[in-house]
């Protein structure tokens, strides 16, 4: 008989739970596995590369099924999150035995305990310890916008006013994993959020309501008013409210420990848009990943918190002189005291990630090792305070020093209660130290040494009864019992022994007894293992409460340790790489002496090649027009000066002999060619869009670096665009700029515009080859050396020689004017099917001629030395 199959109670429960999370995969707990069914199973099996099976039928169709072990679930979760999935985790809310009490076929109660999304991860294995994991929300009220963001793994919360036009650069700065917007706004933000690398999520518009949001936030923080945290506009409260609502939904009411929201001002940090961050490779290399980025090159931090602070500072250089000066003073303090810095660095190696350990414990996802991480860090804080106590500290370090104190009671509790090396999970037990709880010690003794306890009791009973052959035995029917021969049994059944020994059973040859004490010990031995675990779990919950109650001071300590770590690491970097302390002020100065590109210099150092340092002075002439051939180092020079400004304003020393920088409000970079085929943009269109953004936004405190503007179109079109762009930077934006170009005609602008100066990258030509000296000097390049560079790149010799002929002809035509140029071009068989120039052997130099007649084995040492001098003279004559 055909027809629809009956839905089983378990599958009915699954479908009911799944209906509440239609856009997420449902991890449905069944014993030791999380199982998925229907379309979830099909998608998950493909994404995780696991077997897709089936389980039963639904509406006469096989039900697809797949599953992952609970103990390995975190790895699978990470894969799914990285592939764009959201996962609803459904747990069993009772034991199967409890369900059976309601009836043989009763289904175990289950419920979703958490919705896992990219911005709400807390597990250590799912996060990069050295980077933040931000969840952001954008709110708008009429034309006013606000951006709020939180890292629930550390509890840090921030909010700022942010018009929609500024959202892209701010997302590029923060690099959030997930961005929340109001329902119906997805299309307006999809491209912007996607470009930042984040996932887009939505909430109902009620979640962004500022009136209800204020109540939501005061309840969250347990305060009557938000005034204690500062003054927030309605739109800022709306963005914070959306964050709170989203955490309520995803964490199922089990909210993380959140610090009070910090109000940020957009103008307080250097503005760097997404293309510029990508071009300068601040935190990620062009090829992807940290390796090769500025962050990876300068990171000498010893702690995860210090590494995250370094990333924040590098992504958000300060524009406030007092802030920069305070940070710089902390670095200088450790530069001047090498021994102290090294001692502190050694101690910091033992500091754990306090913020994330605290967050996991508060959310109920932590374990004993998170507690020992806090304990060990508190011990290191005491040692650090001892090292710093004798020093006169700068302001930032003084504040950090104060935060090292006030943790003695918690440190003592954790030191007494926890073993040195605990297990990963609390359910395994064994993490409470011996001597902390006498009941626990007794339970463990009974659990681990039950035989010894019984043996001692047997000896005591033998002594009491005077029967040396008395034994305590065990079987599955009677449990523990006392056994003796029938001959001795009569003594045990007569006063006064019968008051202690209770008769239980008589066999053919033996009589068995028990006692009240033996019955009690038996029960305690059988339950000892479970009782020990229960006692430890109780202590675990108590320790969590003690730690969470101390969360405020622990958060301050975490920030202090990160601040100390960052200052020490930047001092270590400055000493190791011979960097200088920059001078910063409110002027428009920009004078770098002996500047180096930190990433390129580090790469060259590994290969044993020296980096050629260069000066840059935009103080009097705020715009340099830089000419020179490709591969000569123009792009490196442009980028290194931008990076020096960023490093200086984050509070670091800089790779130069000296540096004087007037505060830079914005950095814009248009260096390197790229297209965006997904959006239908050619390389030239991308170049023009980015150039337009620079010209429309750069203020008079900006630093702009531009390379080869106009190269993606016809020569005269490109030259005219580049010319007009430079004039606009000079006359309208009035910013500081480095403008690299192959259009040598533009060098004439230095005579027309007071703020423009010419500079070039030096090269030498020898025997038809070009030698790059990588030295930047005042002046202009006489030509681009493009043909020579093509030769170095390995173009076939016939192509290179042909290019020389064409170039000479075109240059001659240029000198002769329009008609001459046309005649010469008409005479050139530019589109000949076969090469018109035969390969030529390279011209033999004087040195080569001389060496042909030399037999090295026949030379005496004196003759060899004379030959070297002779060849050197010949080489000099050739160069001249």
From TrEMBL:
Residues 702-718 form the DNA mismatch repair proteins mutS family domain. CDD domains: ABC_MutS1. GO terms for molecular function: ATP binding; ATP-dependent DNA damage sensor activity; damaged DNA binding; mismatched DNA binding. GO terms for cellular component: cytosol. Keywords: ATP-binding, DNA damage, DNA repair, DNA-binding, Nucleotide-binding. SMART domains: MUTSac, MUTSd. GO terms for biological process: mismatch repair. The keyword DNA repair applies. Pfam families: MutS_I, MutS_II, MutS_III, MutS_IV, MutS_V. Signal peptide: none annotated. ATP binds at residues 628-635. PANTHER family: DNA MISMATCH REPAIR PROTEIN MSH1, MITOCHONDRIAL, DNA MISMATCH REPAIR PROTEIN MUTS FAMILY MEMBER. Belongs to the DNA mismatch repair MutS family. This protein is involved in the repair of mismatches in DNA. It is possible that it carries out the mismatch recognition step. This protein has a weak ATPase activity. NCBIfam families: mutS1 (TIGR01070), PRK05399.1 (NF003810). This is DNA mismatch repair protein MutS. It comes from Cognatiyoonia koreensis. The gene is mutS.
């Amino acid at each position: 008989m055909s027809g629809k199959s009956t839905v089983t109670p378990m599958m009915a429960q699954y479908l009911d739970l799944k209906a509440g999370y239609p856009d997420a995969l449902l991890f449905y707990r069944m014993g030791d596995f999380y199982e998925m069914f229907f379309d979830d199973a099909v998608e998950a099996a493909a994404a995780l590369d696991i077997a897709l099976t089936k389980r039963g039928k639904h509406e006469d169709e096989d039900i697809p099924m797949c599953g992952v072990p609970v103990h390995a679930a975190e790895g699978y979760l990470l894969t799914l999150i990285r592939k764009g999935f959201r996962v609803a985790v459904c747990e069993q809310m009772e034991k199967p035995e409890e369900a059976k009490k309601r009836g043989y076929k009763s289904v175990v109660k289950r419920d979703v305990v958490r919705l896992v999304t990219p911005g709400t991860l807390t597990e250590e294995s799912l996060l990069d310890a050295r980077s933040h994991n931000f969840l952001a929300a954008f709110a708008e009220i009429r034309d006013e916008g606000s951006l709020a963001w939180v890292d629930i793994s550390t509890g840090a919360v921030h909010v700022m006013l942010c018009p929609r036009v500024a959202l892209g650069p701010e997302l590029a700065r923060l690099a959030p994993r997930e961005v929340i917007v109001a329902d119906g706004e997805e299309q307006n933000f999809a491209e912007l959020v996607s470009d930042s690398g984040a996932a887009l999520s939505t909430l109902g518009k009620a979640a962004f309501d500022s009136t209800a949001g204020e109540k939501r936030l005061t309840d969250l923080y347990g305060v009557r008013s938000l005034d204690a945290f500062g003054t927030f506009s309605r739109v800022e409260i709306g963005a914070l409210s959306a964050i709170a609502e989203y955490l309520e939904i995803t964490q199922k009411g089990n909210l993380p420990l959140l610090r009070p929201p910090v109000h940020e001002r957009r103008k307080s940090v250097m503005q760097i848009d997404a293309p510029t961050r990508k071009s300068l490779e601040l935190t990620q290399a062009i090829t992807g990943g940290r390796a090769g980025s500025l962050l990876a090159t300068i990171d000498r931090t010893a702690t995860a918190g210090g590494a995250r602070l370094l990333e924040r500072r590098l992504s958000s250089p300060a524009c406030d002189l007092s802030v920069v000066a305070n940070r710089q003073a902390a670095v200088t303090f450790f530069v001047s005291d090498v021994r102290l810095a090294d001692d502190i660095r050694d101690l910091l190696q033992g500091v754990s990630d306090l913020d994330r350990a605290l967050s996991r414990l508060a959310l109920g996802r932590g374990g004993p090792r998170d507690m020992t991480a806090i304990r060990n860090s508190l011990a290191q804080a005491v040692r650090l305070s001892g090292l710093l106590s004798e020093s006169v500290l700068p302001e930032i370090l003084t504040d950090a020093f104060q935060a090292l104190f006030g943790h003695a009671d918690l440190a003592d509790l954790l030191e007494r209660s926890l073993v040195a090396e605990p297990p990963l999970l609390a359910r395994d037990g064994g993490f409470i130290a011996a001597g902390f709880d006498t009941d626990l010690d007794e339970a463990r003794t009974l659990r681990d040494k039950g035989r010894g306890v019984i043996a001692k009791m047997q000896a005591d009973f033998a002594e009491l009864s005077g029967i040396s052959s008395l034994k305590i035995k065990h079987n599955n029917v009677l449990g523990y019992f006392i056994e003796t021969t029938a001959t001795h049994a009569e003594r045990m059944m007569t006063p006064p022994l019968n008051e202690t020994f209770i008769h239980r059973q008589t066999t053919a040859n033996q009589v068995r007894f028990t006692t009240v004490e033996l019955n009690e010990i038996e029960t305690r031995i059988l339950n000892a293992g479970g009782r020990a675990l229960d006692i430890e779990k109780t202590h675990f919950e108590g320790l969590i409460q003690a730690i969470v109650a101390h969360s405020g001071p622990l958060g301050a300590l975490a920030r202090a340790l990160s601040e100390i770590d960052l200052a020490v690491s930047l001092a270590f970097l400055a000493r190791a790489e011979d960097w200088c302390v920059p001078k910063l002020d409110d002027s428009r100065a920009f004078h770098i002496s002996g500047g180096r590109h930190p990433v390129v210099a580090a790469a060259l150092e590994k290969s044993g090649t020296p980096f050629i340092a260069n000066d840059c002075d935009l103080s009097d002439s705020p715009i340099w027009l830089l000419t020179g051939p490709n591969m000569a180092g123009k792009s490196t020079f442009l980028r290194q000066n931008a990076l020096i400004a960023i490093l200086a304003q984050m509070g670091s020393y800089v790779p130069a002999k000296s540096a004087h920088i007037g505060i830079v409000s914005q950095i814009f970079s248009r260096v390197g060619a790229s297209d965006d085929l997904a959006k239908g943009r050619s390389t030239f269109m991308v170049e023009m869009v980015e150039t337009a953004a620079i010209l429309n936004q750069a203020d008079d405190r900006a630093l702009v670096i531009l390379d080869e503007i106009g190269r993606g179109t016809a020569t005269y079109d490109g030259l005219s665009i580049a010319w007009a762009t430079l004039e606009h930077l000079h006359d309208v934006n009035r910013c500081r700029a480095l403008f690299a170009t192959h259009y040598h005609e533009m060098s004439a602008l230095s005579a027309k515009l007071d703020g423009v100066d010419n500079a070039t990258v030096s090269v030498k030509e020898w025997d038809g080859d070009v030698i790059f000296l990588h030295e930047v000097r005042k002046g202009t390049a006489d030509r681009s050396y493009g043909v020579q560079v093509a030769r170095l790149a390995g173009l076939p010799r016939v192509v290179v020689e042909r290019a020389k002929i064409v170039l000479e002809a075109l240059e001659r035509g240029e000198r002769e004017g329009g008609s001459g140029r046309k005649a010469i071009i008409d005479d050139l068989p530019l589109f000949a099917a076969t090469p018109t120039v035969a390969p030529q052997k390279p011209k033999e130099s004087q040195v080569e001629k001389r060496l042909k007649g030399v037999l090295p084995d026949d030379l005496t040492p004196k003759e060899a030395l004379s030959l070297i001098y002779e060849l050197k003279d010949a080489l000099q004559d050739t160069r001249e």
